[in-house]
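Practice set, problem 2.
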Amino acid sequence: MNLFTRFASLLFIFFIPSMAFAANTSEHTQLDLTGEIVGYLSLAVFTLAYIFVIFEEQLHLRKSKPVLLAAGIIWIMIAVVYQQHGFDHAAEVALRHNFLEYAELFFFLLVAMTYINAMIERKVFDALRGWLVEKGFSYKTLFWLLGILSFFISPIADNLTTALIMCTVALTVGKKEPKFVAISCVAIVVGANAGGAFSPFGDITTLMVWQKGIVQFTEFFTLFIPSLINYLVPAAIMHFFIPSGSPAKVHNEELVMKRGGIVIVILFLLTIITAVSFHNFLHLPPAIGMMTGLAYLKFFGYYLKKTSHKEHHITEHRFEEGMGMTDDANQKHTEGFDVFRKVAGAEWDTLFFFYGVIMAVGGLGFIGYLGMVSETMYGQLGPTTANIIVGVLSAIVDNIPVMFAVITMNPEMSHGQWLLVTLTAGVGGSLLSIGSAAGVALMGQARGIYTFASHLKWVPVIALGYAASIYAHLLINASLF
């Protein structure tokens, strides 16, 4: 990341807190603290914490730590001020509202992450990777396969996991063609982010919009064509810069799916159906449906553990055939399936980061910055311009606080506009490599090949896709505006 980008990121940090997530306190007194010392101090604390987040890679300090501390400090200051004014429980009510919002998101994501970890352990994704590597496709064919698979897998799995799997394939087959790897990584990031925009399960921002009941489950699919255009436009241009020829056929290590892998995929789909049914038909939080779906995995895990001797027999048979498996490998292969290990393997730093962001930005919203920005962005600029800006901001600063702000501002706008902001917040992160979790992860995985600079030179074509997707939405879904 160059100095200009760091400086631009810091500038936007000063504006993002204003787009804050506030609790519904209509039944309680709410003080306007935007011009008070506590307001300025809260802004300073949040800004300092987010600076640490931006420099996470350089400081080797996990991003959850500064925002967790910032959230606690902000709410301490708010509670003290409200008690001084004689409102002992107003801050408590607001905090509980914010915490409930996070709790629903937390349990939803925890179940999804557990299923993804279970599929990784059963080598579901390894089997897909092995198939792609061994087929001997040309560079151009692989470029399209990686991007298209990223687009269609990310709506079910998260865009980060999808991008990492596809990047592994690109690195494996493109050892002698770093140019292919660099361009493919750009397409993977764009495809994964675009695919996540038309599904509640593809991105945290779409999940928040769905859980709030703003957009119904099936209504997200109206964004399919705009999302596809967002990927196809830059991919079609990048196609002409892919090296010709085919990579040497790679015979990778044995990538065979473990017993029960397909069943876990099916159970995950059933869990999604359960969550959607809870939300649409029973009017219960989707997180409750996800927790019910976790029981499916737990019972199947019990079955796998009780029948683990089958894997042991398979291992013995392979060993006798001369595979030469060591005792350590044999022991590892025959370990029983443990669901709690999959839960423990969740991205806890990410989950705690979400907590810190939601609570900290919630505190800033409770202070009173929400109304100010809502009037400026949606009152003066108009919803279309404001929603396009949200997408651009998502490329510079994490889209989580931005989307929480928009949801809680709850500006008066049409259903088409809500779909627009869902689209822009989802795909806007593709404009820069630092704009999404997928991009940041791939910079680490393909270090020195896929970099901030290598992504930056494709920004014009990615921006063209961003503009084309917005235009497509405005045209195709005109009746919703």
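Problem 2, part (b): a different protein.
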Amino acid sequence: MTYRAYLRTFDGQISEKTITKDQDAAAEAFTALVGRTDLDGHKLAAALTYNNGQLAFHRFDRNPGDRDYWRDKLDEIEWPSAGRPAEMEGGKRVNVYLDAESLSIAAKLGKGNVSDGIRKALKQAE
């Protein structure tokens, strides 16, 4: 399970590559690349992949609203689900019933993992 964030020229050359197993580090690296306004108008792209599958591809020669322009929609990246979490000390499996809106919010907070989203929301409520 590996994330990669990198710049790519249209002839396939790659630079500024970040390889990590950490989703937050991958998001930070891709955000930094996409935020490079000095590259606007150039035939370059910032790519974000997970296990060699593309999650996002930002082209610097595109404009807001265009396909492959991610600067204004980084929160729309469809991150892979984290899967079953490791056992945690004092943890217990429980079932919850959520309406569609709450489920969506929890998934967004947890970057695709509803349980993580619920835990984050509960910590914020403290």
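Answer key, part (b): Residues 3-76 form one domain. The chain has two domains: 3-76, 82-126.
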